[in-house]
Design brief:
This protein is α/β, with parallel strands linked by helices. It has one domain (33-46, 55-183): Response regulator (Rossmann fold). It has 6 helices and 7 strands, in the order E-E-E-H-E-H-E-H-E-H-E-H-H.
């Protein structure tokens, strides 16, 4: 069993399609993805007016991470666990991604610029269409933090302490997706890592 490393490696033009590096959009994708902005504002958005089919697709993970390096790392590594991934850097972009990307689970840093994971969880829970999406708060702060504790009292919110190894992260993502009835009916079988 080969476990992908979370350590960065330099990408070469010949890397596309090798060692699990995605070379293009996932099978069945009907729209293009593009990076917009620069610096901490960089985010991936899905364009096009035709919604992607839900049946037979990979489970979708929406990563909310304002740290550029870690966000990019998660965006690049999680597809090796069988997931389709989109990255946003703040809760403003989160609101749009809930509708356009339709995530099966959200993996979010607790400490975001301007807002924290509690604010994020409240926004997700108040969303009219995607308010039931599971949220995994990925953080290195003390689990006794009062705002973190309050976030964990909200429905379908789980804690994943940093640093987390790839297998633990994938297992928790799979567990949360399997408890989501909508995702369980439409997701393709997950690859073992």
């Amino acid at each position: 069993m080969t476990v992908p490393s979370l350590l960065p490696r330099r990408k070469r033009p010949s890397d596309a399609g090798q060692r699990g590096v995605p070379s293009g959009p996932p099978d069945g994708a009907r729209s293009a993805q593009a990076s917009i902005g620069s610096g901490p504002e960089v985010r991936t958005v899905t364009t096009g007016s035709v919604p992607r089919p839900r049946v037979g697709r990979a489970p979708r993970v929406l990563v909310v991470e304002d740290h550029r390096y870690l966000g990019g790392l998660l965006r690049d590594v999680l597809p090796q666990g069988g997931f389709e991934v989109s990255l946003v850097t703040d809760t403003v972009a989160l609101e749009g991604a809930l509708e356009t990307f339709e995530p099966d689970v959200i993996l979010a840093d607790f400490r975001l610029r301007g807002e924290d994971g509690l604010d994020l969880c409240r926004k997700v829970r108040s969303h009219p269409l995607r308010g039931d999406v599971p949220v995994i708060l990925h953080t290195a702060i003390d689990p006794r933090n009062l705002r973190l504790q309050e976030a964990l009292t909200l429905p379908r919110v789980t804690l994943l302490l940093k640093p987390a190894d790839f297998q633990t992260m994938v297992a928790l993502l799979r567990e949360q997706i399997s408890q989501n009835p909508d995702a369980a009916e439409t997701a393709t079988p997950l690859r073992s890592v």
